[in-house]
Write a structure and sequence with these properties.
The chain is an alpha/beta fold. Helices cover 31% and strands 24% of the residues. It is elongated, with a radius of gyration of 25 Å. Bound molecules: zinc ion.
């Protein structure tokens, strides 16, 4: 496979950020027009299939809910002035609110208001997907300013039979073993969680579809929880093809990279991500699997137990801006998304190149100088480190150790060992024992 890393990373950072900015104003939810129009915008970048699953469809222990759509919402004082308006921020309405039009006392209204007293200027993000109710989310400052006796409330929404929408795109590889890249795409105006994940996945898909990878890559843009459950229910037979997977979220904030292992904890994806982060030269954190978080909860449920981890920057719930209006276009920055993107590319490159090789000249070292291998690597241009990589590969390629095993034993970056492997293959000193992905 040709190298994935596109030359102009700054440009790609600006493009990913541009996509985030374009999707930011749309009021998405787990179903409805906001999600659908988001998928249509993604189709301008990748030939994504948009799938619709009817409300009422049984998906394991769950049921695809009614479709929610919203046109407008407000709280007005009795002078007719909007004191809370959906037009200003779609976070103002509790996502999935049932329709309402009423005149209420201040006390009655208060029971339907949510705010964050510790951050009095921020609007919280609340949902009520599986319990029919309605509400408004407001800054604490606004909540405290509501001191008139009565207000008029209106939520012009609908909750009716329709469908659940999700986006799916497969980059075909040389084998049908798959790498799953999944991101929840159901949040309204929130940038890190998870417009950053959507943008990174779209641009990763664009890079991959310009190559012919070893694995096939399946990209899923699903509503959180119900979307991955629906996909798994409709594709149960297919799930065993998933050889590795990552749930992408929260990849645009300034925090360090954070990898949450798959339920297995020692899957190839767990080892590859850990290796790449270890050699990144930057701080990072590895966490064990816990049955809480994003859609890895479903992929890693015991009936599937897929090797799917989650690679984020600061994880869900661990930054104050999480699920508030402060998770905005200032909070995510192009340079952080690009840094996450590069990490994902390195992981993909390592998955692609990781294989088991056999030294065809195992009795004593082959004479590398005679073959011009030392010379061909530039007489010190790559230096002693690269010679060591060649020697490590020759010594450990006994048909049992993978490229990753060798990189770990040699304590060298994966790409150095992969490069040494390439050169030895060219000189017919190695052969691939079997294509594990085959
Ligand atoms: Zn979230």
């Amino acid at each position: 496979m040709q190298p994935l890393l596109p030359g102009d990373l700054e440009h790609i950072g600006a493009d990913m950020y541009g996509l985030i900015a374009r999707l930011y104003p749309i009021c998405r939810s787990i179903t409805g027009e906001g999600f659908r129009s988001t998928m249509r915008i993604l189709q301008e970048f990748i030939p994504l299939a948009i799938n619709e699953v009817p409300s009422g469809t049984k998906v394991f222990d769950w049921t695809v809910p009614k479709e929610w759509n919203i046109r407008d919402a407000y709280v007005k004082n009795l002078r007719g002035e909007r004191v809370v308006s959906f037009n200003e921020s779609n976070l103002h309405v509790v996502n999935y609110s049932t329709p309402v039009k009423a005149r209420l006392s201040r006390d009655e209204l208060q029971r339907h208001l949510f705010s964050i007293p510790e951050h009095p200027k921020w609007i919280p993000y609340r949902t009520s997907y599986y319990k029919e109710s309605w509400g408004f989310c407001v800054s604490h400052e606004v909540l405290e300013s509501l001191n008139e006796p009565e207000y008029e409330v209106c939520i012009d929404s609908s909750l009716a039979n329709g469908s659940l929408t999700y986006g799916e795109y497969l980059v075909p590889g040389k084998t049908d073993r798959e790498v799953l890249i999944s991101c929840h795409s159901c949040h309204p105006s929130l940038c890190n969680d998870n417009l950053s994940g959507i943008a990174l996945s779209v641009f990763l898909a664009r890079c991959l579809n310009q190559t012919r990878p070893r694995y096939s890559y399946r990209f899923l843009f699903v509503p959180g929880t119900i979307g991955s459950i629906t996909w798994l229910a409709l594709n149960e037979q297919h799930a065993s093809r998933i050889a590795h997977g990552l749930v992408v979220a929260c990849v645009g904030d300034p925090g360090q990279m954070n990898y949450k292992q798959s339920r297995r904890g020692n899957a190839e994806i767990d080892r590859v991500v850990e290796h790449v982060l270890k050699h990144s030269g930057k701080p990072y954190k590895i966490s064990r699997f816990v049955p809480y978080g994003y859609d890895e909860r479903q992929y890693c449920s015991p009936g599937f137990n897929l090797p799917v981890g989650s690679l984020t920057r600061t994880p869900n719930g661990q930054y104050p801006e999480y699920h508030t209006s402060a998770d905005n276009l200032e909070f995510v920055r192009p340079e952080h998304i690009v840094d996450s993107f590069k990490t994902y590319l390195e992981i993909v490159e390592a998955l692609e190149a990781n294989g088991i090789y056999y030294n065809l000249n195992p009795k004593c070292e082959p004479q590398l100088g005679r073959r011009g291998i030392y010379g061909s690597v530039g007489g010190g241009e790559r230096g002693h480190g690269f010679e060591m990589a060649l020697l490590w590969v020759l010594n450990l390629a006994d048909g049992h150790a993978s490229t990753l095993d060798i990189a770990e034993k040699a304590e060298m970056p994966f790409h150095t060992i992969a490069e040494a492997t390439e050169i030895l293959l060219k000189h017919r000193l190695l052969e691939m024992r079997e294509d594990e992905a085959g």
